[in-house]
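Box S1 | Example of a co-folding query
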Amino acid sequence: MTQTHVPVIAIHGGAGTISAATTSAEQAQAYHDALKNIVAAAQAMLLKGASALDAACLAVELLEECPLFNAGHGAVFTHDETHELDAAVMDGTTLAAGAIAGVCHIRRPVRAARAVLEDGAHVLLAGAGAETFARERGLEMVEPSFFSTEARRQQLYRVRGTGRVVTDHEGATMAAAAAATPSPLDEDKKFGTVGAVALDMHGHLAAATSTGGMTNKRVGRIGDSPLIGAGTYADDRTAAVSCTGSGEMFIRVAAAYDVCARMAYGGATLEAATHAVVQQSLPAVGGSGGLIAVDRHGNLSLAFNSEGMYRGHARGNEAPLTAIFA
Ligand code: ASP
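Box S1 (continued) | Returned holo structure for aspartic acid
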């Protein structure tokens, strides 16, 4: 196996507003530790020659299983106090993609998205049909309560009382919420999507994203995460991108695809392309959040216009780096 590229992995665990509550060093450390361990697991795979697609899927699966992040177990609630999960994966080599939306029984949504990609007949399956497909594929199914945590339920009650869907970092302060929250980013003003992008040693790119969506969202609402081109995109000729933020705005500006298009059509560098999308296109429509992206040369961009974004990355066999704030 010829190693021609230094592999790169990057992950995010959502973007958001710094909590008004004081965050203890221990609390922040829990996030750093989780991010670091997950980056290290994907990094080890890449160093053994695994594909970018496998590494990105593994990282997202581990993030889904970690209750600190709002995807899989720990997902947020809809207005009706239910869960509706979305996920997507994309292979930059073939432009093959798979996604599922609005599911509530699939334990690891990213695995179902991967199964849709591998099946190849469709790109996006939603609701009951997606769940039937996952069942047929032998994926682990759970009761919706598996995803529930008390903290998320209380979060819904606070947000529902305001009549808002939490898509606005600049919205009303929810101090009570912050006070009860042990997370560096204010749980009520944070986007909890998780995602990963990878470049493997064969020069291939992949992206994966998974989310519980937005707290207090209307039942049936689908965000940017499972929409190829909006929250997730990968193309070996340009970059792999996974987004987190106010999904409606990411959909409207085709955020993930726009990064790649700026590179392909305008010759923009990854840095310039992500900066334009995150600091110009998204704010122009009121979009808040960020994205992680890696290009075919291994350049990395972890960009956000919110106060913080849980993130981590590793290049080659270098020690993983993690960060929460700017
Ligand atoms: N982008 C996600 C959505 O709109 C939310 C998030 O990033 O946490 O569903």
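Residues 14, 191-193, 211, 213-214, 223-225, 231, 244-245, 247, 289 surround aspartic acid (CB under 6 Å). The chain has one domain: 8-325.
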